[in-house]
């Protein structure tokens, strides 16, 4: 074995003297020979670090894309990521970092769709007219228009209330008690946005302010005439829209008629929900006309102020309609004038499946009219007459009709003063019909297989 010399000529054996054995000390304390990263991973890490300045993604393999998506910062500007990174891990991380509750099943199991729909909803819900620049919303359109299919707007903020001057605050008692009413209260203008969202299929709107606290004013909970006009024009240009829900917004006859006018002959609208508003007979007539010139399948007018004349207009349209499947007129004021008109119309209708007339102050006369329908009509599947005073005569007519019916699988006559024995008989018929329906579906399923 060769020996070495110390300075001065003394010899030594390196294997015997551990003091001079060479050592490699890593700068990273976690580094070991077993964890040396491969060159491709080092390159991918470099891509992640410099993604905003030089986004490289399309050229990567699926495995490499997954590596990058798991490590990219969720705070990257949307101009960089929106039209480059498809649905997957990255958008899942973005959603979970921003919102506590993320049920992707509500968005067709598409994380990217969830992110952009909720991102746009937040922008609209926090938009303050006169303060927020419209471009803050419009700048997002090129980035998200391909992914937005539904918007669920749970609030719309009014302009900021200007403080009253001292002399106004303590001035004449002749002044309005609500200076807020005289100010411009127009909300976000949907006409600048909806025509650009070419894939929008559902629009849910509520004109209200959440968590208004001590600043509460009734006018915060309704749409203005200008709001209605701009929305109506925007809806007409929204050709892909299938569902419109505008509820709890003090929608009255005038606004309802304007909206119905612009929705006439809409090519794709299938469901209309104007529930929990202030629509009366004139608005109901406009909706009746809409039924004759649209392809609506579901109409919900629950909790309005529709009376007999308005119900007659809807009934007239119903007698000629061949597309409507569900009609909800619960919690109106139809009484027998409207209830009997609906019953008479259904004798000439063979498409309606579900009818809800609960809480409409109808009596046995309406029940008798609908009994004729139950005998002749084999299409209707559910009927709800709950919370009405049908009485003995109404119960007897329904019992007789149901004894000949094989199609109704739901008949709700709770709180109607109908005798318990008749209610029990009707329920048994309903259960029998349900069993027949289940057998029929099972047979159809076997045939398809």
Q: How is this structure best described in words?
A:
- The protein has 449 residues and is an alpha/beta fold.
- Among the domains are: 86-160 and 186-249, no CATH class; 251-265 and 276-347, Alpha-Beta Horseshoe (Leucine-rich repeat, LRR (right-handed beta-alpha superhelix)), CATH 3.80.10; 367-449, Alpha-Beta Horseshoe (Leucine-rich repeat, LRR (right-handed beta-alpha superhelix)).
- 39% of the residues lie in helices and 8% in strands.
- It contains 16 helices and eleven strands.
- The strands form two sheets. The chain has a nine-stranded parallel beta sheet with strand order 3-4-5-6-7-8-9-10-11. Strands 1-2 form a two-stranded antiparallel sheet.
- Helix 11 (281-292) packs parallel to helix 12 and helix 12 packs parallel to helix 13.
- The chain is globular and about 95 Å long.
- The termini are far apart.
- Mean pLDDT is 89; it is low at 166-182.
Q: Outline the biggest β-sheet.
A: 9 strands, parallel
| Spatial arrangement of strands, main beta sheet | 3-4-5-6-7-8-9-10-11
What is the share of helical residues?
25-40%
Percentage of residues in strands = 5-15%
| Gross morphology | globular
What order do the SSEs take from the amino end to the carboxyl end, as H and E?
EEHHHHHHHEHEHEHEHEHEHEHEHEH
Uncertain segments? 166-182
Query: Using only CA atoms, what is the Rg?
Result: 33 Å
Helix count, per DSSP? 16
Beta-strand segment tally: 11
Helical/strand content category: alpha/beta
Mean pLDDT: 89
